[in-house]
Amino acid sequence: MKAQGKTAKAQGARHKAQGSIGVLLLAALLVAPGLARAQQAGTAAKNVELAPIECYWRTGASSVRVGQVFNVTLTCGVLETAATTVVPDQSRLDPDVLQLQPFEVVDGTVAQDLHTPTRRFFQYEYRVRYIGDEIGRDLDLPALTLTYRVQSRVSTDSAAVESRERQYILPPRPIRILSLLPGVALDIRDPQPTSFEEIRSTRFTASVLRIVAWALFALAAVIAAWALVRAARRARRHRHVEVRHASDAAVLRGVARELTDVRRHRDADGWTDALAARALAALRVAASYEVARPVVQVPASGSATLAPGQLRIPGRWPRGGTVVLSGSATPAILARERVRAEAAGHGRGQRLADLESALTRFASAAYGRDHAAVDSSALDEALTGGAHAVQTLRREHGWLATRLRALAQMAAGLRSRAWAR
Q1: Residues 6+ apart with CB under 8 A from 176
Q2: Which of 80, 268, 334, 349 is the most exposed place for a label (fewest CB within 10 A)?
C-alpha cells in the first residue's frame, strides 16, 4: 500500500511538471511575435529620414477682385540638427525680388525665424494683387522653386561637408478672380452711397469742414491786418514829421542838376563866391539825406528870390509850381557820423568824408574872409567828390530801393514782435 502511494505521488508530480512546461511554451509562443514586432519598430524608428525642407502657401482670401490687395504667406521649415543643416537660398524670396506672375507683389515683410530641436522655420508675408482682364477664372500662384544645400558633419568637431545644389518645388495654389459687377451688367458703374443716412452724414461733415475753413481764413485775415496796422504805427512813430512837396528822388535829382549847372559856370567863368554858395546849398541838402536829417521844403513861386543856402526845384505833380529846399547838415554833424560809421566798419565812411570835405571847402570859399586864398583845384576836387556822393544817394533813394527798404523794415518789425511773444 505504501509503495502504491509513493508511485501515485511521483506520477502526480510528473504531471504537474509537464503542465508547467506546457504553460511556459504557450506563453513563449504568444510573446515572441510581440517582441519581434517591437524590435522591428525600434529598428524602423532608428532608420526614419526627416525631409530636408518643407514649404506651404497660405492666402488671406481664396477669391479676390481685380485690383484687391490680399496677403500671401510663405512658411518653410528646414532641417537643422547637430549632424545635418539645410541651407536654402532665401535671396529669391525677398519681397522686392519675388515674381508671382500673373499677380503683382506690392510689398512684404520678413518674420523672425523660429527654432525647434530639429527644425528652423522662416516666413515671408507678401501683399499681392491682380491687375488684368481674366475675370471669373481660377488663376494659380505659380509654382515656387527653392534651391538648397545640405551640410553634414560626422562629429561636432569635424568640418561640414556640403552636398550639391538641390531643388524643392512648391506646387501652385489657385486663386479665384471675381468681377466687380454682375454678369448681366453692360457698363461700369461707380459705387453709390448705400442709404439716405450716409448721404446726410457726408453732407453734414462737408458743411462743418467748409465753415471751419472759412473761419480760419477770416482769422488769418484779421491777424494779418492787425500785424500790418501795428507795423505801420511803429514806422510812423519813428518817422520825422515833415511836409513833403517833392519826393526824395526829385530832390536828389534837382541837387544833381544844380551841381551840373555849377560845373558848367565854373568851366566858363571860374570860381566865384556866388557859385561856391550855390554848390554849398546843393551839397547841404544831399548831406542831410546822408545823415537822415530833415530837409525843409517850402512851396514858392517861380519869381521868388532865393535866400543864401536855398535851392529851387520843380514841385510834385499834379500841383506843380516850385519848391524851395534848404538842408540842415553841417561839417560837424558829418564828422560825428563819420566817426561812428568808421567805428562800425560801415562803407559810408568814405562818402561822409567826401561830403564833409566838400562842405568845409565851399563854406570857406563862399563865406570866408580871405577870398584871395581860394584854391580852385581843391574846389574842383570837392565838387567831383560831392557829385559822386549825390549819384550814390540817388540810387539808394530811388523808387525801387525805397520800396524794398520799407518791406524789409516791415518784415523786421513783424519778426521782432513774433520773437517777443
Answers
A1: 62, 63, 64, 137, 138
A2: 268
**Phi and psi torsions of 79, nearest 5°:** -70, 135
Q: Cα dist. 111→76, 107, 147, 251, 376 in Å?
A: 12, 14, 20, 81, 96
pLDDT given at position 120: 93
Amino acid at 252: L
Query: What's the rounded Cα separation, in Å, for the pair 360 and 356?
Result: 6
Provide the β-strand partners of residue 324. 298, 312
Question: What three-state secondary structure class fits 285?
Answer: helix
Q: What is the pLDDT of residues 38-52, one digit of tens each?
A: 454 444 434 446 789
Q: How high is the pLDDT of residue 183?
A: 59
177-214 per-residue burial string, b: 16 or more CB within 10 A, e: under 16: beeeeeeeeeeeeeeeeeeeeeeeeeeeeeeeeeeeee
Sort 143 into a burial class: Cβ within 10 Å, 0-12 / 13-18 / 19+.
Answer: exposed
Architecture of domain 53-178: Sandwich (2.60)
Q: Per this entry, what is the length of the chain?
A: 421
Write down the domain spans for the chain.
53-178, 248-420
Cell of 185: 451688367
pLDDT recorded at residue 60:
87
- What cell was used for 397? 533813394
Find the radius of gyration of the CA atoms of the chain. 55
Position 43 scores a pLDDT of 42
Do residues 366 and 276 lie in contact, with contact meaning Cβ atoms separated by under 8 Å?
Answer: yes
Locus of grid cell 523786421:
412
Q: For the chain, which residues score pLDDT lower than 70? A: 1-49, 180-194, 235-244, 301-304, 315-320, 369-374, 413-421
Distance CA 179, CA 173 (A): 20
> Residues 6 or more apart from 125 whose CB is under 8 A from it?
71, 72, 73, 74, 108, 109, 110, 111
SS3 for 176? strand
Quick one: pLDDT at residue 343? Answer: 85
pLDDT number for residue 4: 47
Q: What single-letter DSSP state applies at residue 187?
A: S
Identify the DSSP state of 65.
Answer: E
Q: What 3-state DSSP class applies to 165?
A: coil
